[in-house]
Amino acid sequence: MSTPVNPDGPRAFDLIGLGECMVEFNATEPLSQAVGFNKAYGGDVLNALVTAARQGARTAFISRVGDDPFGAGLRAAWREEGIDVSRAPLVPGENGVYFISLDAHGERSFTYRRAGSAASQLAAAQVDEAFIASARCVLLSGITQAISPGARAATLAAARLARQNGVLVAYDPNYRPRLWGAPDNAREACAELLPYVDILLPSLPADGAIFPCPPQSLVGHVAVKHGEEGCEVWLRGERTKVPAAAARVVDTTGAGDAWNGAYLAALLRGESAPAAAALANRVAAEKLAYRGAIPPRDLAN
Questions:
Q1: Is 103 labeled as catalytic in the residue annotation?
Q2: What percent of the chain lies above the pLDDT cut of 70?
Q3: Which of 148, 240, 138 is nearest to 197 (CA)?
Q4: What is the pLDDT of residues 98-131, one digit of tens each?
Q5: pTM for this entry
Q6: Of 294, 265, 225, nearest to 43 (Cα)?
Q7: 185 in Cβ contact with 154 (< 8 Å)
Q8: Which CATH architecture fits 13-299?
Q9: Residue of 14, 198, 251, 257 with catalytic role
Q10: With CB atoms 3.0 to 4.6 Å apart as the test, which of 116, 146, 201, 270 could cross-link to 179 if both were Cys?
């Protein structure tokens, strides 16, 4: 059984995401030893939008992009993926940068340079109601909430406007302790958004630290990612467990985001939640075989 989408007339977009995308430099060894890097880009919401677009969804990104030497290339790359960037303008400022180094098991070590980034200047006043209302679903993230008070306010504004306009709200808490400082800060941000959430997309055990009770008791539709153990979908109190797809792990960066994008795209084209989860498991497994947040485009199907 799939989650119904509000049928009040045509919508321009299937999925709109709000968040930050940064410039990515990834290396195949620890940063202290690295002599070469591959340049790409990544950000949890944007990664999911790329996957959704490759699955045929009509997508758009709400953000701010710094007018540094990377900015124009970022927007061009997103447009090439089919993502509408009309609400991700170039503005004065710098884009965040992050470095990835990997161990032999594909586990990531991140180093960020994102303080004061252009995307962190997001504010509630920049979230346009008509644009939110043009979507069938809006994807929000705990990482966006964490990067600045303004971005947190923008996330809440997007959720409220979505609810007022019959737009589904999907939310990945994506808890990152280093961004939040004290866990209570993340718990408060999560709690303020949950009343507006239609589809909750946590990863366990990582996100378990910020929930006061099991996530399936908080929202009627919850899709829980369990990594190599697969996932489980709770829909109106009914639980379906979906096994993981076989994977060759090179880099785990962005796998959960790819899962979110594939899952939402499948739901929005009418697939059942279990079928959408099975597809998302396969898409995430394919992503694991490639370095960086965004896998090659020929993995779209």
A1: no
A2: 94
A3: 138
A4: 998 866 665 668 888 998 999 999 999 999 999 9
A5: 0.93
A6: 294
A7: no
A8: 3-Layer(aba) Sandwich (3.40)
A9: 257
A10: 146
